[in-house]
Each structure stands twice: as C-alpha cells, then as structure tokens.
TrEMBL record:
Keyword DNA-binding included in the entry's annotation: no
Domain Histidine kinase: 620-831
Protein name, per record: histidine kinase
Intracellular or extracellular location(s): Cell membrane; Membrane
PROSITE patterns: HIS_KIN
Pfam families, A to Z: DUF4118, HATPase_c, HisKA, KdpD, Usp
Composition skew (Basic and acidic residues), residue ranges: 830-842
Principal location class: membrane
Its EC number(s): 2.7.13.3
InterPro entries in UniProt: HATPase_C_sf, HATPase_dom, His_kinase_dom, HisK_dim/P_dom, HisK_dim/P_sf, Histidine_kinase_KdpD, KdpD_sf, KdpD_TM
GO molecular function, one term: kinase activity
Stretch list, region Disordered: 827-855
Taxonomic classification: Bacteria, Bacillati, Actinomycetota, Actinomycetes, Kitasatosporales
Amino acid sequence: MGRGKLRIHLGAAPGVGKTYAMLAEAHRRVERGTDCVVAFAETHGRPRTEALLTGLERVPYRRLEHGGASVTEMDLDAVLARRPRVALVDELAHTNAPGSRNAKRWQDVEELLAAGIDVLSTVGIQHLESLGDTVESITGVREPETVPDEVVRRADQVELVDMTPEALRRRMAHGNIHQPDQVDAALSSYFRPGNLAALRELALLWVADRVDAHLRRYRSEHAVKAIWGSRERIVVGLTGGPEGRTLIRRAARLAEKGAGGQLLAVYISRSDGLTSASPGELAAQRTLVEDLGGSFHHVVGDDIPTALLDFARGANATQIVLGSSRRRAWQYVLGPGVGATVARDCGPDLDVHIVTHEEAAKGRGLPVARGAPLGRLRLAWGWAVGTAGPVVLAALLSAVDPGLAIDMLMFLAVTVAAALLGGLWPALASAAVGSLLLNFLYTPPLHTWSVSDPRNIVAIVVFVAVGASVASVVDLAARRTQQAARLRAESEILSFLAGNVLRGETGLEDLLERVRETFGMESAALLERAGDVEPWTCAGRAGRGRPVGRPEDADVEVPVGDHMALALTGRVPPAEDRRVLAAFAAQAAVVLDRRRLREQADRALALAEGNRIRTALLAAVSHDLRTPLAGIKAAVSSLRSEDVEWSEEDRAELLEGIEDGADRLDHLVGNLLDMSRLHTGTVTPLMRGTDLDEVVPRALGGVPEHSVALDVPETLPMVDADPGLLERAMANVIENAVKYSPPGERVLVAASALAGRVEVRVVDRGPGVPDEAKERIFAPFQRHGDAPRGSGVGLGLAVARGFTEAMGGTLNADDTPGGGLTMTLTLHAADARPEDGPDDSGRGPVTAQDERRAS
C-alpha cells in the first residue's frame, strides 16, 4: 500500500473561499465515482459553503470537553476505520483540543497519508510558520496556529485560491464572511486594502517559488539544456577583482526590473587553485550579493567561458553580466578574452551585458609581494648574490676570457642562484647588473655601452628574459608554498574547531580562549543585543584584557549577523586572518545557540517530567488514594448507622479497618509528598553519625511481626546519614521486599562494613526482577509485573533511592542466589566521608536539616 497524495488549497487571505474550493473539488471527484468523505469541514456558518456539504458523506465528529465547553474535532480513528479513497480535512494548521492523539491537525493528516488515504486540505498563507513575523508586521495580528512550511511544500498539489482585495471586501460587506455586527470592525482593521494586497503578494511569491523548484527538478530529471525564460535570472560573473561590486549592483538593478527577478553571482576558479583573486574582496562581494537578495556560487573550471555558460544554462538564466576586460590593448593578441568568448558562444537564448568600470584596460599587473615569504636571511643572501655576484664573476672571468657564450652562461647561473635564494627582485637586479657587465666588458667594442654585432644584442635580450622568467617562476613557487602552508594551517584550525563544536566538546568560553591564544590577543568576547537600539551584553569572555562593552571599543570587531559580534583586544591582526576569525565567530554563535537550546531542552524536560508527575499524582488520587478513603467512609457510615445493631466484635473489626485504611493513606500521602520534595529539590539532609542498629529496627513498623530477620551487628561503624531520611528509605525497601515475598518466607536485612563503606542488604525470595527492569523499578509510578492497583502508587523505591542519593549513597537491585531480589543500600562510614567539598554523588556540603521525619 503506497502513501496517499495531499492536495492543499492555499488561501491568499481569510475568506477567499478555501473550504468552498475544497468541497467543490470533492463534488467533482464524487461525480467521477471516487469514494470521498468529509473528515472535517469548518463552514463558519456560511450558507453557500454549508450547502456544498449536501451530497457528501460525513464521518461523525468527535466531541471533547475543554475549558468547560464541548468542542468538536476530527475522529481520526473513525476515518482510518472507514478507509475512504479521499478524505477532506479542513484547516491544516488547526490545533487539536487536549485529549486528542496529536497536537496539530497536520499530524492527523500525516497519519491518513501514511495509511494510503488521499487528503484534500486547506491552509491560509498567514498560517505558514516562516511568514509569521511578516504577517504580524503587515496586519498587526500574530497567528497563534501555524503549520511548518515543509508540510505544505511536500504536498503533491498546491492550488492557490485567490481574490482581488476589492472583491474580498465586497464579500465581507455583503456578510458572506463574518456576521453583520463584525463587518465594520473587520473592514477597518485586518481587511484593509493594503493588508489584503500584501497577503496576496506573499501567497503569489510563495507559490511562484514552489513552482520554480518543481521546474528546476523537472529540467534536471529530463536533462533540459535550453533556457526557458519564465522569469528573469541574472548571472553576474566575478573575477575577484575590485570591479566586482560595480557589476553586482548593476546586475541587481537589472533583476529588479523584471517580475520575480533573481540574482546569481558566480566566481569560477581554476582546478589548480592558482588564482590572483583576493579572498577578502570575494568575501566582501559575497556579502554584498546576499545583502541584495541574491546567491553566491563558487564553481571550479579551467575553461572559464565554458564553465560560465554551463552554469548559466543550468540555472536557466536569461542574462549574463560581465565587466569590461582589465587587459591592456597588446594583451588581446593572446586571445579575445572571456567577455568576447561568452558573447560569441552564448547563443540566441542568453543576453550578455558588458559593463564598463574604472578598472577597465588598466591591466592586471604583477602580484605584489607582501612581507618576506622566503625569509629575511634568505632574502638578504639573494640580494647579495644578485648585486655582488656579477661583479665578482666579472673579476674572475677577466683573467680567463673563455668567450662570450660561456660568459653569458656563467652570468645566467648567477641570476638563477639569486632567484633561488631571494626570489623575483634580487634576480631581476642580477640580470640587470649582469647584462650591463656583459655589454661593457665582453661585447665589441669593449669598455663601451654600444654593441656592434646584432647577434650580441639578441643574446643579451635573451639573457635578461631568461633571468626574469626564472626569477618569476621561483617567486611564484615561493608564494604558492607560503599560501599552501597558510591554508593548511587554517584548514587544520578550522577542522579541529568544527570537529570539537560538532561533537559538543567545546564550550563557549573554551572556544573564545582558543581564539585568543590562536591569534595572540589579550581578550576575546562574544557580544550580543536584542535589537538595534538595545544595549550590548556579553554572552561569554576569555582573557584578562580590558573589558569591552561595545564592538566598536575593541581592536578587532567581527560581526555575526545583525545583533552579535566577536570583539578582540590586544592588537590588530593582518587582513588575511579575518577569514579564520569570521569562522571562529560563526562557530561561537553556533555554540551559544546550542547551549541555549540545551538549556531550553532541559527546562522542557523538567516541565515534561513535572507534567508526568502531576498526571501520575492525579491517577493516584483518583484510585489508590480513594480506595482507603472509601473503606474508611464505609466503615464510619456503618458505625453511625442506627438501623443495625453492631456487636462488639463487629465494631472492633470496623474500627480496625478504619485504622488500617488511615495508616495506608498516611503511607501513600507520605510517599507522594516525599517524591514531590525530591523533584523540587527541597530535600536537604542533615548529615551526622548514625547507628544502623537504632534506625533499622524503627523502619520495621509498617510490616507484620516476624516477617523480617535482622542481622545488623552492633560493632558496625556509624554511617554518615540523616536518620529520618535513612529510616524512611529503609522502611520503603523493606515493605517492598515483604510485599513480594512468598508466604512464610522471611526477609533478611543484613549489614556489613567494607573499605570505608557500610552496606545494608535487604534479601527476599520473591519472583525477582529481570535485568532489563532493574532500573525501571526505581522510576516514579512504576509497578513491576502484574501488581494489582490499590497495592501502592509505585513510589516507594523511587523515594528510597532519592533519599539515599541525597545522602551521598547508592541503592541498587541484584538477583538473590537461588531466586528473589536483593536491594543493596550503600553509605559512607562516618569516619571515612570527606569533611569538605563534594562527595561521591556530586553534592556539596549540607547545612540545613530535613524537617520531615518518618512517623
């Protein structure tokens, strides 16, 4: 059985006729013979909508009591049992009344779809979760009921139900939407023409985006290469140069002129990674694109025109924006350039715009060395060899005179040595000095700057070109080596950072300390604020530098979104460090969000646990506590009855029943109060040396005589415990053991000392507990096996463990050899427990006494 199909009627505004359209579609399907039922339809008392219900089968609604009133909800089980081919479920974003299986109606729809039932449903654009803030800013009304966008996006069909604002207001004025006494107020508030037009635009854009996603998927699945100009998509090609921002703004203006225009910026890098693009400039251009509502894409390709055209066709673009070439006129002999090639190969379905800019025809220039990538000592040796080497060589060759060809090779060797040592500029200096010496000393006429033989001129030019080429290659290799080393260091830092953050091993303060250490800063702080005019607050800080109250007061400010920033003090790092700093800042924001989410989850878990406890308390009050109360009331009513003459034996039996019921009630209420105190954290034991042989016998008051055998030696050391809590814990454990022991079998309570601890074992010969349930029996409101109701609310062992752990001890369950269960309660001996600091349980020193004692 496959999954059912979902068709949603999306309303552009309230009252446009979503339910009407859904019911009309159901009538069309019924006429075709399709099995359709109305699972739930909300007509809001509108006569024309109610008339469409005639002729459609309706599944009876489920009635629930909520807030003192009777409410109707869809009967999910009845619809599943009916198993129609199509079910009509109105108001997808509706919140179900308490007592329903699911919290939201869309979750009910998911169950119907999973069962193979097709569903027709409705939802208004104002109920989409992602548009909640936008709708509130337009209408001033926050929709309390929302549905996740993904639920609507997954629908097989989404039909827009639309109406012009004027027509919708006429419907309102005619009383077709609200009651007559509500019309004037609605027309002057929510149903103002501007509000309706804005909601209509939201609906149209949302549906257009969904249609566009379907179109892209269809083109991909069917390998469609041709461009379908259904909407303007502007692709702007970036080189990482300074002209990029001009191109982006120009492309954004083009996109704004077309309805639903879309801006896509693409940077194409070579596969070898050798590029002269500035990472900082690319980052700034990426930010500009995103601020203008576009998207930034990084594509790898060695043939830049082909890669650009492939990307444009893949994105179904209609226009390409490129900048005028920065090449000088003579460089065009090497080829037509990217712009001309793209314009030639784009075909009739793509328009290419060549935008002029200030950097056009100025040339790309040589990359400028920043710093000393080869090292200061190596650079010094390079300059020494490049300037002094040719002079020394000329002096040596003057005594030998091997000939011009050998002289040039020797000078070229010095130039190569200077390039290997010092890079570009020392090698160029060596080539210049060498060429001058060759001309002056070794080319006729000698000792003049003129050259008589043209071949010597060619030789000297070749010598200079070879020297410059070798120097350029060595310099480029050195820079790439430095870049590779830096990128490797950055990648290692970021990999370590991302790994720690993803694994949850790094807290916010630890991350900020790593930022401070990595970049040698005095302090690092993450600042945030709630709004543009709100003051900054510090979410986390590391280091001992001066405190920073605002990002602008720091030496380095790295923004993270609109209302968060990483502030560093100590020095101003180089610009290339900002990329890694931005990554650290983003990760710091992620860590902060995760910490807050964890805190929210903990609070939610505590609330859920509290709700579970309250629910169980109500269940206990409804049955387990009412049982002894009912027995007491029956006995008292019998004694007060004047119609029956009770004998002394009967009166004594009734009074004994009253006493037993009161004792049982006192025990149950005591456990309930103890568990409540444990969950609210108000149990604060007063720890002192306590003798077990005094506490354990008092704990036997609630069990029959001769049901327990004691083996508690008087020579045992005292335990560090609260006598009242210990007595209560032991009483609950012993009563539980006696309850499950076979008739005639006595429970053994034995104690012994071992390595600074005292163990109390409660051993029974009952049915025992499987290993997988040994921890579950300590959970609140848990009865093991087929324990009958009325035998307790399942709190005895939970209270016992809670009190034991509050005193720094442990309570565990183990199998009794030969059958049964052994409870082992372990406490610190009084002379072995640490005097200060936390104990083994993680609790700190206790200063207040627990006021409640076992009665």
